[in-house]
Amino acid sequence: MIKVDMVLKEGHYISTKITGHAYSAEPGKDLICAAVSALAQTLVNAVEEIGGIHERDLAVTIDHGLLEIKLKDHDTSDVIDIIFRTFRIGIEGIESTYSKYVRLKIKEVHKDVKNF
After folding, report:
1. If you placed Cys at 68, which of 39, 46, 61, 91 could pair as Cys (CB 3.0 to 4.6 Å)?
2. Could you tell me the domains of the chain?
3. What is the pLDDT of residues 18-53, one digit of tens each?
């Protein structure tokens, strides 16, 4: 199963962590994994290119079965929130059709939380 965890702080998106595999088909033919991967890569690229958040202010971890993106200083803007919300809408669409393979969780942390 692919698990997508999104974290908001004071109503603003500050991180997303995607783990696992769908295993809905053999590797290389798994359309659910491909769809989630495409959305995840687009999220990272859009935060950098459209949102103007660069490496010094962004922590990105990519490994087999893992993609995590965190805004280091929790700097956010309406543009960043729109990018994350667009990603969320895509994941919710996949989850609504393929809930056996994809699970989305949204977590709100308190404003005094630094690490999450």
Report:
1. 61
2. 2-109 (3.30.70.1490)
3. 999 999 999 889 999 999 999 999 999 999 999 998
